[in-house]
Amino acid sequence: MPERPARQRRVDWREWAPLTLLTLAALVGGGLWLAGLRTAPQLVWAAVTLVALVPAAWATVRQLWRRQFGVDVIAVLALVGTLLVREYLAGAVIAVMVSTGQALEGYAQRRASRDLRALLERAPRQARRRTRDGGIEVVPLDRVTAGDRLVVGPGDVVPVDGTVEESVTLDESVVTGESQLVTRTAGEQVASGVVNSGAGFGLRATKNAAESTYAGIVRLAEEATAHKAPMVRLADRYAAAFVPFTLLLAGVAWLLTGQFLRAVAVLVVATPCPLLLATPIAIVAGLSRVARRGVLVRDGGSLELLGRARTLLMDKTGTLTAGRPVAAETVVAPGGDRDEVLRLAASVEQLSPHVLATALVRQARARGLRLDEPTDVTEQPGRGVSGRVDGRLVRVGQLAGEPPEWAQRVRERAELTGRSSVWVSDEHGLLGAIVLEDPVRPDARRTVRRLRQAGLRRLVMVTGDRPLTARQVAQVVGVDDVIAQCSPQEKIERVRDESGRAITLMVGDGVNDAPALAEAHVGVAMGATGATASADVADAVLTVDRLDRLADAVEIARYARRIALQSATVGMGLAVVAMVAAAVGRLPPVAGAFLQEGIDVLVILNALRALGGGLRRREVSPQTRQLLDRYAGEHAGVRDVLARLRDTADLVATRPDGPECVPALREVHRRLIDEVLPHEAAEEQRLYPALAGPLGSDEATSTMSREHVEISRLVDRIGGHLARQPDGRLRADEVPDLLAAMYGLDAVLRLHLAQEEEDYFSLNAADGRRQ
To answer: Left (φ > 0), alpha (ψ -120 to 50) or beta: where does 257 sit?
Structure first.
């Protein structure tokens, strides 16, 4: 490990050494000239010119051999011309400028060495194979053939495609993008590359490793990377018109006057330093800025393409959503205790490696619940976990048998919203359910809007997830099109199709996204949470778990590209004027070289503007960040009241005459008065005025203020019904209006919280804590 920084320093020194040595040599020649010497400085400047000419000429010859034509040919001709007419000082100035451009461009491309290493490293190298005598042997993967019986341990990657011999729980997100764990029963097919998230199981191979799914993903990524066309520098696109014009003007000046010196003078002032200097400086400035925002872009060509992108394709899981399940809601049987159900489930799940278990334990600890150590814990793959907590036998997992009416409603509601349910029961029956979801990132919708403002015209979500879940996420974030149940090969085909019509940007995080990322003009990997394989084939990597940084990167890239084009255009325009002056004999080579220096300084100063500006996002003050953190933290308590409100509304709807109905209604109304309304009032008085600056005006929060009024009105409406129930019973004629108020308040409050989290709390760019 200690050797890596030293190696990096040596690489940096080699990149900047030619520029440093040539500049020092040119300055030494200037010092000798000022000392009164005449021959020595000429020799030094000639040597500087020759040193710069040799590699530049060799690079130009190689480009021409490959039928590539760039502006560097003008610099080579100018260097040759200054040597022929013995204008060595002009040649030395051009040499320094050419070397500066090469150094800046090399710096911009220093991170261009990514490969498929992580993708290949993740691929399994061996497998556990059953022997004829009932034992297990570990064999190299290439020795596995169709028909072999294998054993896949907990947490292992399935080595080859095959059929499972018992019920298993799998994480298939790396292949399909499906965020939820899936259960496969005996005899079902599974693909290589998926991860065993349960107990060990038997697998009968149906294909060898070379023919299996994961190997195909690796091949797709390799092929897509190999076929990606090389990037043409921004400067070279001007060469098609500028180089022929320069050579024609120099030739005409020489032909009409018979003075070769005039042709050299034209070439000297035509040396494309505004392109060789200003363009890389603007691009490097853009690279530096996006890196500070948490986006590492591979090279200047990728940044330029990012600034030209018009179509964006996005994966869902881990890109638009958090990529990990969270406990969205705990629903209990009538008369049950929500915290107790969650505590029991999390206590049993503490010893399970299952990702759903992690979500339950995380939720319980976030609520401050005391978790007890379970005993007699057993896990049935695909069915769940059971154990004793405080002497009670608690089961957590799938729903067995015919569910009661309340549980049936919970299951139907979860299916309609694309969520999954974990059921909790004890010896006496079903206790409740914990509803899990892969939530949409709070900043996703705002980021999509900003990407449209930045110039992206078409936004498409491609995912391996189910159509219902995919459509719901697409509606929330506001994309133009959604393609569900999309395999890695289908993703590549879609990217190719879109890339044929416009510069295409692809964003993803899993191994299944790697081929599509490599195929797109610009592939962006969610490197903070996604597989390193996708990061290795991508052109840019988000190193922080925040999708809004992608919008920052696009805006900065467009701004840097615009500054680069502006600098190049202005610089070349001034150069054309100087070329005409040189052609008519008004500008000798040395004067032309120093005039070109002046033009260079002008365009470089303009290019440095790329170090700032271009972002639409308004910065948030530390005081406002504190307010955002405070009120975002209070949302968990408001959601708990919301869950109680929904349970109470269901109770009123099913048993309005039950003795527990009015007490539950009074308790939830008390919490609305004591917890929710003070939270909304504090936001109105403190948070919303503080957001006027970052959002642009006071009007930006006016609709949210109107929602506060509606929330207060509905709470008062529920209180009015309670005030008319002195005997503790609900009248049948009041139930419909009471339910309308309760379900209406539930809908308004949920929408209000979601809007605040998307539009306001996502402004806090400190980190990804709320993802």
So the answer is: alpha
